[in-house]
């Protein structure tokens, strides 16, 4: 009994730190789920329409109230399964790192520092995932190809506009139709099932952060697995973990496989996204070899257009622009939760 109490005293601080970080993650996840797509944000689609002049207007008062109460979410079975799998894999990695490798460690500061670092990166990764999944990627208003809207455009003689026959909307430049979202998306890069959403003009920043943080926690998990294997082989397997040696080995092998696959995939995606942003060319435009008819924003100009403003810590913060007060007001007001 005394032996158990001594072990608990040694591990209690690390357990409390890990529990606090996980609780903060769950609270932030619940807040992001009710995300901050206010009517002003959603209707930038109309305000920034390239075919509209500064004095033109588009009457959308009938749908504005409905859109203000909704959160962007794609009800796609495959995408929802992939999104849930992503969360479960991150939670599994956090469990193995915290309870199999760090809590049994005899080095207190090694456990605390690595535990806090890994859990913070996991919170940032999952928050970036939610922001990517629940942010409107830049959908063109559905059904705006009406005669009244055409008249408001004040087109010049001979000027050509394009109408999408699938969603009955006027397609801005660089917009493409997504068959899963069933909408035309501005600067659509691709549809990613792992985030259950398109990656487009308004959520590409969060997708880049998601791939970056997943790659970081994958690399961190692999490094910790290497140290753990070394310490267990060097000492006694029964002392390096609270689990039995076979269970410990199986859990760590699965974590190594998961970490290697996720690190490879997300590192490649991160590099691809940064390359696309610096060249101001989406993946669809690259695959279709579309000749640019727009003024390209290369390198830093492209990065600033996606991440916003001058380089700062806000670039790597998935909570930038997140307003808790606005969410609390909307949660009290209630309303439907899904926009698609």
| Fraction in beta strands | 5-15%
Strand order of the largest sheet: 1-2
Average pLDDT rating: 76
Count of the domains = 1
Question: What letter string, H or E per element, gives the SSE order?
Answer: HHHHHHHEEEEEEHHHHH
State the secondary-structure class.
mainly alpha
N/C terminus separation: 57 Å
Radius of gyration: 24 Å
Enzyme class: transferase
Domain Palmitoyltransferase DHHC: 163-289
Protein name: Palmitoyltransferase
Catalytic activity: L-cysteinyl-[protein] + hexadecanoyl-CoA = S-hexadecanoyl-L-cysteinyl-[protein] + CoA
Notes on the protein architecture:
The chain is mainly alpha-helical. The chain has one domain. It is about 60% helix and about 5% strand. It contains 12 helices and 6 strands. It has helices at about 1-35, 40, 45, 60-70, 75-100, 110-135, 145-155, 205-235, 245-280, 285, 300-305, 325-335; strands spanning about 160-165, 170, 175-180, 185, 190, 195-200. Strands 1-2 form a two-stranded antiparallel ribbon. Strand 3 and strand 4 form a beta hairpin. Helix 5 (about 75-100) packs antiparallel against helix 6 (about 110-135), helix 6 (about 110-135) packs antiparallel against helix 8 and helix 9 (about 245-280) packs across helix 11 (about 300-305). The longest helix has about 35 residues, at about 245-280.
């Amino acid at each position: 009994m005394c032996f158990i109490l001594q072990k608990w005293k040694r591990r209690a601080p690390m357990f409390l730190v890990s529990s606090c970080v996980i609780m903060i993650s769950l609270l932030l996840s619940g807040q992001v789920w009710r995300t901050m797509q206010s009517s002003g944000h959603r209707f930038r689609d109309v305000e920034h329409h390239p075919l509209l002049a500064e004095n033109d207007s588009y009457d959308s008062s009938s749908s504005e109230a409905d859109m203000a109460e909704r959160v962007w979410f794609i009800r796609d079975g495959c995408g929802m399964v992939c999104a849930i799998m992503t969360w479960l894999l991150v939670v599994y990695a956090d469990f193995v790192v915290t309870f199999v490798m760090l809590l049994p460690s005899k080095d207190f500061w090694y456990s605390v520092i690595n535990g806090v670092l890994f859990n913070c990166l996991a919170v940032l990764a999952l928050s970036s995932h939610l922001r990517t999944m629940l942010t409107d990627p830049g959908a063109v208003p559905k059904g705006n190809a009406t005669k009244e809207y055409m008249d408001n455009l004040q087109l010049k003689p001979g000027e050509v506009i394009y109408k999408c026959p699938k969603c009955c909307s006027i397609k801005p430049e660089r917009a493409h139709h997504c068959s899963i979202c069933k909408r035309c998306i501005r600067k659509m890069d691709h549809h990613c099932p792992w985030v259950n959403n398109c990656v487009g003009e308004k959520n590409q920043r969060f997708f880049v952060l998601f791939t970056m943080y997943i790659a970081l926690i994958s690399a961190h998990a692999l490094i910790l697995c290497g140290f753990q294997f070394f310490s267990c082989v060097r000492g006694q397997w029964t002392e390096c973990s609270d689990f039995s040696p076979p269970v410990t080995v199986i859990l760590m092998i699965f974590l190594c496989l998961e970490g290697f696959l996720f690190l490879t995939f997300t590192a490649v995606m991160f590099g691809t996204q940064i390359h696309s942003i610096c060249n101001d060319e989406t993946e669809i435009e690259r695959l279709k070899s579309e000749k640019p008819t727009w003024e390209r924003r290369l390198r830093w100009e492209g990065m600033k257009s996606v991440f916003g403003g001058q380089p700062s810590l806000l670039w790597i913060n998935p909570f930038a622009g997140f307003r808790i007060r606005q969410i609390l007001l909307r949660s009290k007001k209630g309303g439907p939760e899904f926009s698609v």
